[in-house]
Amino acid sequence: MALNGGTYAARAESGSVDPQYLYILPTLFEVTDETKRLAWSKASDESDDGNQMVDKDKYHAKMLIAISESFAHDPILEGITPTEFDAHCLEALRFFGLDVLGGIDGMRTSIETSGLEKGSISTALITVVDEDKARQYVKLGVKVNAITAMFSTPENLQDVVRDYGKVLELVAPENTHLYTMEQLFAPEWVGSRLHFREQVLEKYHKCVVNFALEDRKIA
Questions:
Q1: How far is CA 140 from CA 29, 72, 108, in A?
Q2: What is the pTM of this model?
Q3: Which residues, 6+ apart, have CB-to-CB distance to 149 below 8 Å?
Q4: 107-162 tens-digit pLDDT
Q5: Beta partners for residue 128, in sequence order
Q6: How many domains is the chain built from?
Q7: Cβ pair 10, 17 in contact under 8 A
Q8: Which domain of life does the UniProt lineage start with (predicted)?
Q9: Partners of residue 24 on adjacent β-strands
């Protein structure tokens, strides 16, 4: 998995687009209903001696929910140290097919910049390792084609407006925080990733305009 920067402006043909940029993740981390179902299932949390988790799936699912609800800013809620909390969060993400750029340091950076007003952490440093598994438990947004920078091929104005709305919701949701800390942690990689997301959005915007102009000509 490449993590060495690159921008869409340099073009996929040159091999400089990091494959991780193709995942247009929601700006803030979100879990699926399956994660909530698993986290609150009736499976036992502890072994008979009360020291070990019996159901790892359930435990890791609860950690994903903790991440999505920004419990990360107050590790005391989990009865563990901040460092232990970071490690548990990272382990949960990896268990469900994700990872974090920079490992434990990247996890701490993401937690420290959590969007408390939205109740989640940013996805700027989150990478996708096992898409099929991760998509069951985490909302991954859309994945665009490296050449076209679009996740589908619109055939009419209605299609492209629908797709543009989806990308706009992922890239520029209202009232989200900036990625200042993440950019300090990995400025080139995160900056290039954000630039790629903006260019995907711009491409969809231009496509909407072009389809609208074509429809006007036909009318």
A1: 9, 20, 21
A2: 0.79
A3: 8, 196, 199, 200, 203
A4: 988 888 775 555 688 899 999 999 999 999 999 999 999 999 999 998 899 999 99
A5: 98
A6: 2
A7: yes
A8: Eukaryota
A9: 142
Of 145, 210, 173, 205, whose CA–CA distance to 27 is shortest? 173
Domain of 162 in residue numbering reads as: 1-18+144-219
Domain boundary among 119, 140, 161: 140
**Whether residue 155 sits in one domain with residue 100:** no
Is residue 194 domain-shared with residue 219, that is, in the same domain? yes
Q: Which two tokens stand for residue 59?
A: 């435990």
Residue 53 φ then ψ, to 5° = -75, 130
Beta strands in the chain (DSSP E): 23-24, 98-100, 126-128, 142-143
- Under DSSP, the state recorded for 178 is P
Question: For residue 2, what are its two tokens?
Answer: 């490449």
Same structural domain, 116 and 48: yes
In the block, which residue shows the tokens 């001696």?
49
